[in-house]
Amino acid sequence: MTSERATSGAAPTPDGIDVLVLGGAGVDTIVYVPQLPLPPADSHLVPAIESRAGQTGDLVALGTHTLGLRTHHLDLLGDDQAGDLVRAFHAEHGIPLTEAPLANGTKRAVNLVAPDGRRLSLYDGSRAPDTERLPAAALADLAARSRHAHVSITQPCALALPALRAAGLTVSTDLHDWDGANPYHETFALAADLVFLSTAALTDPERTMRRIAADGRAEVVVAMAGEAGAWLLVDGQLSRVPAVAPPEPVVDSNGAGDAFVSAFLFGWLTGEPARVCGRYGAVAGGHACTVPANRTGAIGRPELLARAAELAVPTGP
To answer: Where does the UniProt annotation place the signal sequence (predicted)?
Structure first.
């Protein structure tokens, strides 16, 4: 990846947007459990159950916004308490939000979080039926003012991809725990210039990464592997991004992937080479693991750059 390509895309207007985030707005109910998997039982006493806004699109928007990129979030929300939590989240952090009604209610999930920070997410599939659409006029207006779009794989974002292409934007997406076969995810995988995914459900991550690059338009494919770091595929060359030790004890892995994506995009949109973008992502992902699941927080630009610079200094003879 070169600086020239990294800074490509539609030129923003004076009131422009660096990152237009589509989809992924919702509420997680956090349940702290004694262990994962839970042992069979009729009931478990847990330390706390809390609900907070901050699903994947919310957290990517928070990350890019905190790093100083002009960010705007577009999604469907319900006229309900969960929607109010999402609106309050954006207002609190100063992230512009454009919404349209979601008849079935705001997207939600239940996250089971173990003491070691691992999580299991249970998503409510009833909230965004196939008949829902992002508002075409708002999408066209926001795309015309944006440099780049990050597209969540939540319904109905796949239908927005042609409009983003027509506007000349570069596009990224996160396939999360794709198994490499589900056709729903493949639509996003083959339409994006920058593809993120987890290795969690992949038997052969390199093969899947190379297929994405060969069959689609991706310049960069990033496979995130948690504590094992990540893998980068750029111009046919596969390289490893080492994990970065969190600066404080790990309390929750929720949002670590979104933090990685946000920091990588920050590097990519400011013209850094892929290896530097990966280092940014690893630093931000490690930082996110120190933030409890019942609140949200993102690393700021000064801390990110300082920690990444420390890692870049050669050590030893």
So the answer is: none
